[in-house]
Amino acid sequence: MTSISKAIPSDVLSNADRTNPDRADGRSHLPASSDSLQDQRQQIKQRMEACRCVTLALFQTVDYDTFCQHAHPDFSPIGWHLGHIAYTEALWLLEHTAGLPPQFPEYRRLFAADTLPKAERVYLPDLAEVQTYLQTVRTAVFASLETAPLDEQERLWRWLVQHESQHGETIALVLELIKKERSGVSGQESAVSGQPNTFSNQLKTQNSKLLLSFEKQKLRSRYANKTLPHTPHPTPHTPHPTLMLCIPAGSFECGNSSIDALDNERPVHRVYVETYWLDRTPVTCEQYQQFMAAGGYQNSRWWSAEGWEWLQLAQVTQPLYWSDSSDRAHHPVCGVNWYEADAYARFVGKRLPTEVEWEKGASWNSIALQRQTYPWGDVAPNEDDCNCNHAIGHTTPVDAYPTGISPFGCYDMLGNVWEWTATWFDRYAGFEAYPYRGYSEAYFDGQHRVLKGGSWATQPSSMRCAFRNWYHPHVREILAGFRCAASG
């Protein structure tokens, strides 16, 4: 289980745990005016509609067999995720906050997270019936929104947008697994259908109407001409060394306490980091090919003991979503687990960055001495800044978004592929669980590594430098790559 597919158990709240949003959200505690409340309601409605648009677009070419297919032991069928989205929205916004009776009680056992094993979630209603479920719940939810006390509940409503977007990304990666199983390749076609990715073009049109009017005029020119240092002492194993950036020693603000921040991102806190070097871009397919060609998957020298043990069982010789196409040479490698990323880093004489190193390189503005929500500033992600929200439908070259670079000059810190870090997922000092105790806390077990940044399938609501994803180190089905670091 991970943050991008976090399912909600059927009974998660005690009376004390019900919607009591953390006030560390930068909002005034004074009563809001009727005009500002109406603006909040409209903004939430627009976000929910935009998110739903993306979710439903994923199903445009899906047949019933695909809808119910259990493609991988760790992931539920995509149809189950769609029903779970409706179930969770009804559970929190209609039952727990509005006090309404359960919507479609017959679906509780099917779509709650703690009732059926994943392998038994294949006996599903058809897509039309689940869409009716979604729309019936959504109609009631929007009716409830008109009178909801948003001064108390806004954080919950925003959290649910992220919940849907995260399940939407899980749906996308399961479709990638199904496509790979059926075709044996992972090309640039739309998932499952094998046809050109027209669905991403439809999303562009739909999202332009539904997404909020985020500012796009702010160019990030103050970093465009930054002089960048070269890789220090590249090893003989790096015929195409990555440019590395020197991140000077100093403290920075880590985390996020905005109203959108999840519990594991909070609170904002200062961390001192020694000087280090960070790859300017994620590792590309061309670079990773050198590791494969040199026998990296056959040489235990580059692998941790746990990684080598995994490799002997897995018997793989390339990333899960590997393509030999020359068109992919400058795309980030995708479909590697933590062990593979760690082995490559050892191969080139580097290491994986810690989470705080990654986040400092992505968010810290050393001129203004302040953190930024996104690498380029505080304007929400759009298709000009990074590869996200299915706008392209697959990975893109690692240097394709020059307006999206971080203050230190790093490319692709958000979007394209998730990036593994060296850090085990754990709480920050002062952690407070939200919206229920087990949402993040159950995974503070020393068995999940942190990933940062988001992928081409991540929606903007779940993209920010402080966002923390987490997975077991053996998982390679996610849309993940990595970049390397070196000590100063």
Globular, elongated, flat, extended or rod-shaped: what is the shape?
A: globular
Strand adjacency order, main sheet: 9-8-7-10
List how many beta strands DSSP finds: 11
Question: Beta-strand level of the residues, as a percent range?
Answer: 5-15%
Task: Name the average pLDDT.
Answer: 86
Question: Uncertain runs with pLDDT below 50, 5 residues or more?
Answer: 11-30, 185-236
The run of helices and strands is HHHHHHHEEEEHHHHEEEHEEEE
Largest beta-sheet details: 4 strands, mixed
Radius of gyration: 22 Å
Structure description:
The chain has 488 residues and is an alpha+beta fold. 33% of the residues lie in helices and 8% in strands. The protein is built from twelve helices and eleven strands. The chain has a four-stranded mixed β-sheet. Helix 1 packs antiparallel against helix 7 (198-210) and helix 3 packs parallel to helix 5 (127-145). The longest helix has 34 residues, at 150-183. The radius of gyration is 22 Å and the shape is globular. Mean pLDDT is 86; it is low at 11-30 and 185-236.
